[in-house]
């Protein structure tokens, strides 16, 4: 696998993404929903009659739980879209080595996810914090760099998790039918429901939400997780790696 | 050169390809024939490394497809015209394909011109007719200027002009010394394009021969004779050692005989002959005869 060979496959994967409107839309929506809804939340939490949010970082990243749904669709389409559109045979005819094909896809998807995540997180952060005015925080405040970095990692990893699941199921519709309800319920706080918490807190989105200050005040035993913020990111990373490995095994073994 | 050795594939308990062996030589168009469901597409997918063989192997120039570096420069394939993203333009479809194998962009323009799609290059493939999609598929197959071509039912959906175009194109490509394998379930169309035939039925090899030889051996020609005294002529011909059959309209069909000989025998025995004609079996008849027992989905008939 020479560098030039891999580069060719990555470039072609990038072409596949920009040459189809649906994938471009998912990326645009990720930014638009996160920033727009974040501005709305921050607006509701500021103003003369309001005391301001208990945690300004909650206001910064709460909207990502909705914006993530769009980038998860992107992640599912990266591999899954080839099966629904029927291009998978052409792709594997052009790049018959499954490992090379999968590597090229993941490098392209990761690159795009990182860029979109960083843009989304930074723009959302600055927009929400300026809306909060005096109650807002700046990048140099304590705990903020970790939360911002964590949010970028979160969006990237959740995208790759969806990519891996779609590669295992070989069907983007089925993938989204499973993942979107789970992530949507996660946004509704399912990780904190007393009976479910011991299990639900280890779900990929829940594990990653702690570092973004979305899991509630950790000094309150009702919200407290059994792991720390970076361990949470690690748990999400393990989910993503497991899904990606599973996707690779399916692609290597099954007929196209 | 494509070589298939003892290739097998089953789906569940259904055998799709059963111990198939053949070789496709360069410099001629080889027709890959069989009724629908005979295993043609499955065989082609295994040659392309898309489906794993249950047994045996398929190689191109001595190497299995999955081991080829930049395979589009070695093998061009049209597997299904539907393998296009509806929202992607023809140009971009060829562009991403080219990028995987480091084929220059100028070649994309070249193949679009070659198949007559340069004006539709920016159109979305979803708006293409079956014929245009087929042409785009051919363009994709030719992208890497490969010495080996595999085309699965390329004339499907093409208008008469398109059929003629592809026939000429395939023969030109073969004349340049390329290996060309074209599958079809249409015997007559294949006969016009191909010089060599590989016929399969129910996943097994039925014939691997030239088109001419195939017709001759599968359904021999005969002399058709109309006479008012069929019984007497029949005895005369039978005595001379020729197999004779009587057709439903009363005419005699004389096998293994020249028309001259039949006429001479009739004259010698004073049997009047109203009509005598040599009939060569059509390709369709030859095909039906050979694959008759191997048709998987047969019409109900009456």
TrEMBL record, chain A:
The keyword Transmembrane applies. Keywords: Membrane, Transmembrane, Transmembrane helix. GO terms for molecular function: ABC-type transporter activity. Signal peptide: none annotated. This is ABC transporter. The chain crosses the membrane at residues 24-45, 57-79, 100-127, 147-169, 176-196, 230-251. It comes from Sinosporangium siamense. One of its GO terms (cellular component) is plasma membrane.
């Amino acid at each position: 696998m020479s560098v030039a060979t891999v580069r060719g496959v990555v470039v072609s994967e990038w072409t596949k993404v920009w040459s189809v409107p649906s994938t471009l839309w998912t990326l645009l929506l990720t930014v638009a929903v996160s920033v727009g809804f974040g501005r709305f939340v921050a607006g509701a939490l500021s103003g003369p009659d309001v005391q301001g949010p208990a945690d300004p970082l909650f206001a910064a990243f709460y909207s990502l739980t909705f914006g993530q749904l769009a980038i998860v669709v992107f992640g599912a389409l990266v591999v899954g879209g080839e099966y629904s559109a029927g291009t998978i045979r052409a792709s594997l005819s052009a790049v018959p080595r499954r490992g090379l094909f999968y590597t090229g896809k993941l490098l392209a998807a990761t690159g795009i996810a990182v860029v979109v995540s960083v843009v989304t997180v930074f723009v959302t952060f600055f927009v929400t914090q300026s809306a909060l005015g005096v109650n807002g925080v700046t990048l140099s405040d304590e705990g903020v760099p970790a939360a911002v970095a964590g949010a970028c990692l979160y969006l990237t990893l959740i995208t790759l998790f969806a990519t891996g699941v779609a590669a295992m199921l070989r069907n983007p519709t089925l993938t989204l039918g499973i993942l979107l309800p789970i992530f949507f319920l996660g946004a509704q706080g399912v990780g904190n429901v007393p009976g479910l918490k011991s299990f639900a807190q280890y779900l990929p989105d829940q594990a990653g939400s702690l570092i973004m200050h979305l899991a509630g005040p950790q000094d309150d035993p009702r919200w407290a997780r059994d792991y720390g913020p970076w361990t949470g990111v690690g748990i999400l990373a393990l989910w993503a790696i497991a899904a990606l490995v599973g996707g690779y095994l399916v692609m290597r073994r099954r007929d196209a | 050169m494509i070589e298939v050795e003892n290739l097998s594939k089953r789906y569940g308990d259904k055998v799709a390809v059963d111990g198939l062996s053949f070789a496709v030589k360069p410099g001629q168009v080889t027709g890959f024939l069989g009724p629908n469901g005979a295993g043609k597409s499955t065989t082609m997918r295994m040659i392309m490394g898309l489906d794993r063989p249950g047994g045996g192997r398929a190689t191109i120039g001595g190497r299995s497809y999955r081991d080829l570096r930049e395979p589009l420069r070695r093998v061009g394939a049209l597997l299904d015209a539907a393998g296009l993203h509806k929202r992607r333009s023809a140009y971009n479809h060829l562009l991403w394909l080219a990028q995987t194998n480091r084929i220059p962009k100028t070649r994309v323009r070249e193949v679009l011109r070659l198949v007559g799609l340069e004006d539709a290059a920016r159109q979305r493939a979803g708006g293409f007719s079956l014929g245009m999609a087929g042409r785009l598929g051919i363009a994709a197959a030719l992208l890497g200027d490969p010495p080996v071509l595999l085309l699965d039912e390329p004339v499907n959906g093409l208008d008469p002009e398109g059929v003629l175009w592809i026939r000429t194109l395939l023969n030109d490509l073969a004349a340049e010394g390329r290996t060309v394998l074209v599958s079809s379930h249409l015997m007559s169309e294949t006969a016009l394009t191909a010089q060599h035939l590989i016929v399969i039925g129910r996943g097994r090899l039925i014939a691997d021969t030239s088109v001419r030889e195939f017709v001759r051996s599968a359904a021999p020609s005969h002399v058709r004779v109309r006479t008012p005294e069929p019984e007497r002529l029949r005895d005369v011909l039978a005595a001379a050692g020729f197999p004779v059959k009587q057709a439903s309209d009363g005419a005699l069909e004389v096998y293994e005989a020249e028309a001259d000989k039949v006429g001479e025998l009739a004259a010698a025995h004073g049997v009047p002959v109203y009509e005598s004609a040599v009939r060569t079996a059509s390709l369709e008849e030859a095909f039906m005869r050979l694959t008759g027992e191997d048709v998987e989905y047969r019409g109900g008939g009456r």
